[in-house]
Specification:
Elements lengths: L5 H25 L7 H51 L4 H15 L2 E9 L6 E7 L3 H6 L8 H9 L3 E3 L21 E8 L2 E14 L5 E4 L3 H64 L4 H28 L10 H15 L3 E6 L1 H6 L2 H22 L3 E9 L2 E8 L6 H6 L3 H12 L3 E6 L5 E7 L7
Parallel strand pairs: 7-8
Antiparallel strand pairs: 1-2, 1-5, 3-4, 4-5, 5-6, 8-9, 9-11, 10-11
């Protein structure tokens, strides 16, 4: 829609009445021969000019205000649409919740934002996501709020609230030590189809001036309505993320069931048959040694076939162990398993920002590389300590694993034909990255896997 030219409208609002008055004056003088009075004519001209100017300005000003209001609402709706679309591209529940609070803060121009996910009892805050608060300030806070005061009122009432001065509200119980000061607030519940997910809070409204400056203001009813509409979209996105996670869990259970059936009907039955052969040979060892020897040979051949069958099964099986886990969750699980099963000292360092940008596909490949590398450390390195690091290196994602074990000749690494190193190199290629290993006899081993940051689907 093209904007209205209010400047031209103002001029037309003055010129048209004056032209009409001039024509009427001429008609009066020429047709009805009314006497011409300069003073009366001047007074009429001034009255009409002033009246026309005032009326034209009033009409143009109201049109400008209406146009600005329409434009502002269109911008808000577009921002709401973009915020909603951004939520649909993410399926990890933690990332969805963080995006909800980030997008809502930008939507209503708030300095701070927070999202509280309530626990199963409906009283305590189970998860708490913030936006606009620096890491330093966040680290000084005592933890998630207890759901009392104004935050508890929103949860108990289940209705949106808007407060001009938090400190003056009778429901306020103050802020904990280290909490940034806040004055204005708007909060809405996040719910969909009768299911309640949590509450969204925005504080300290910021108003952008035409000059480019920013001043503090109060949240409006329009801000509250806009946030309520976004909360509905957020609830749908959260529900989709929950459904995705449930589907992943169902897929894991189905895969476990399939593997169990395959093992039961194939490998276990073969092993059971071999057990019968060996048991028969045990009873014949004294009375029929030749038959016993033949039975043992048959058992060995059957065992070799089972081993080949298992190896083939493993090579064609797509692992599901790390499905649905972030890189940080997966590395924590692997290191905990290593500490439990061995006497190794294990140190894990994960850069939270790197873990956030690591996609699910990349996490799956990185975790399988880490699993294979740690298995090699446990079996062959003879190490007493191992260190895992995940973060950034020259703008790339990097997984680094160091051990203080026996190490090996670098030429053996280059010539190795084993499945372990080959699989790790293959997974690094799948990441469009690089696999590198540094080792020497008696100097332990250092493994590095780097990969470019992937763009999430838009």
């Amino acid at each position: 829609m093209n904007p209205i030219d209010t400047r031209s409208l103002r001029w037309l609002g003055v010129i048209v009445p004056l032209l009409s008055w001039a024509i009427w004056t001429v008609i009066r003088s020429l047709i009805w021969h009314q006497p011409f009075s300069p003073i009366a004519t001047l007074v009429e001209l001034l009255i009409i000019a002033v009246g026309a100017t005032l009326f034209a300005n009033w009409v143009a000003t109201n049109l400008e205000r209406g146009e600005a209001e329409v434009r502002r609402r269109s911008e808000h709706l577009e921002a709401l649409r973009q915020a909603g679309l951004s939520l649909t591209t993410e399926l990890d529940i933690a990332n969805v919740l963080q995006q909800v609070v980030d997008q809502s803060r930008a939507l209503v121009q708030a300095r701070y934002g927070a999202l509280a996910v309530m626990g199963g009892d409906g009283q305590t805050v189970e998860q708490f996501y913030t936006s606009g608060i620096s890491k330093e300030v966040h680290s000084q806070l005592p933890g998630a709020p207890e759901g009392l005061g104004i935050l508890g009122a929103l949860h108990r009432d289940g209705r949106s609230i808007r407060i001009a001065d938090i400190s003056a509200d009778p429901r306020a119980i103050g802020f904990p030590e280290g909490h940034p000061p806040m004055r204005t607030m708007v909060g809405v519940p996040i719910a969909s189809k009768g299911k309640y997910y949590g509450n969204l809070y925005l504080t300290d409204k910021r108003i952008m001036l035409p000059s480019g400056g920013v001043i503090d203001g109060e949240f409006t009813q329009e801000d509250q309505d806009l946030l309520a509409m976004f909360a509905i979209q957020a609830a749908i996105a959260i529900e989709n993320a929950h459904l995705y996670r449930e589907n992943q869990q169902i897929a894991v259970l189905r895969e476990r069931e399939r593997i169990g059936m395959d093992l039961h009907d194939g490998v276990i039955q073969s092993i059971y048959a071999i057990g019968l052969l060996l048991d028969d040979a045990r009873h014949r060892i004294d009375t029929a040694p030749e038959q016993t020897r033949a039975g043992i040979s048959a058992a060995i051949n059957s065992l070799n076939e089972v081993i080949a069958d298992i190896r083939s099964y493993i090579q064609h099986l797509r692992p599901q162990r790390f499905q649905g886990r972030s890189i940080k969750q997966g590395l924590e699980a692997l290191t905990q398993e290593l500490r439990t099963d061995t006497l190794l000292t294990v140190d894990l360092q994960v850069d939270d920002q790197a873990a956030t940008v690591c996609t699910a596909r990349q996490a799956d490949e990185f975790l399988h590389i880490a699993q294979e590398a740690l298995a090699n450390v446990r079996k062959h390195a003879g190490a007493s300590a191992v260190k895992l690091q995940f973060g950034f290196e020259d703008g790339l994602l990097q997984l680094a694993i160091h051990d203080n074990g026996a190490g090996m000749d670098p030429t053996q690494v280059r010539r190795s034909q084993g499945n372990g190193l080959r699989n790790m190199r293959s997974r690094a290629r799948a990441l469009h990255g690089e696999f590198r290993m540094e080792t020497a006899p008696g100097a332990g081993a250092k493994l590095f896997v780097t990969a470019p940051i992937e763009k999430r689907d838009a």
